[in-house]
Design brief:
The protein is 36% helix and 21% strand. The chain is an alpha+beta fold and 73 residues long. A hairpin with a 7-residue loop joins strand 2 and strand 3.
Length: 73
């Protein structure tokens, strides 16, 4: 794989996705739901201190980013 994934908290991941045009539509418990027009996925981002690498990669892929693009946000 290209570059290393930098782990981050749920809150930081939410900020990065918002910066890229995703909108917080609702929150259920500790999960923030983000949507973006033209995308089939709703991102469900748990607000944990640190997101696991597998989950973070899945969210990045669903959002249509590469790991490099996500790290730069």
């Amino acid at each position: 794989m290209g570059s290393d994934l930098r782990l981050c908290s749920g809150a930081e991941a939410t900020r990065k996705f918002k910066k890229a045009g995703w909108t917080k539509t609702r929150q259920k418990g500790s999960h923030v739901m983000l949507t973006k027009p033209g995308y089939e996925y709703t991102l469900s981002v748990p607000q944990h201190k640190e997101l696991g690498p597998g989950l973070l990669r899945k969210l990045i892929k669903q959002a249509g980013f590469t790991v490099e693009e996500f790290n730069k946000l």
